[in-house]
Amino acid sequence: MEMLGLLIFGPVFLGIILLIVGFLFKNRWIVIRYLLWIPALLLFCFSFWINYNHNSKLKKYEKELTGVFKINLERSNLRGYSPEKYNTLTLVVRDDNTFEVSPAVPFIKVDKGNWSFKDFELSSAVLEGDNDEEYVNATGDYWQFNLPSPRGNENQVERIVFNRMK
Hints:
Shape: elongated
Number of helices: 2
Strand order of the largest sheet: 4-3-2-8-5-6
Structural class: alpha+beta
Order of helices and strands: HHEEEEEEEE
Radius of gyration: 25 Å
């Protein structure tokens, strides 16, 4: 946390010091004033970017804790996928809460976000530790389904299965 404070407030204080020095020299060396404004503005923008980046990561982490994942259905993202070859696609949820397409397309790994599966329907979500399958049987172009928090151990989703629509 201290390092984050240095990264955020360090450039701000340095920018303020450079602005003060720029104003002190305004009557003597106009060139120095303008030369000092440039790094001050750059440092201000840099500190703003660091703060914005930190806040967006916090918001993303809070969104991950809710466990809502959206899947967009189209097959265009699956390079090397042969629709005649497989009738089932399985998304395996890894420990870091990212998805791996398996076994139909074993070499493609995808992170959370939008994935494409055309002509497939969501058939089940398998919960780790339970042998029960939670059947969803949703069809359509866009689904949103809830997954448990990455921190919680109970009912962690292990895999999500898509079956080809007939």
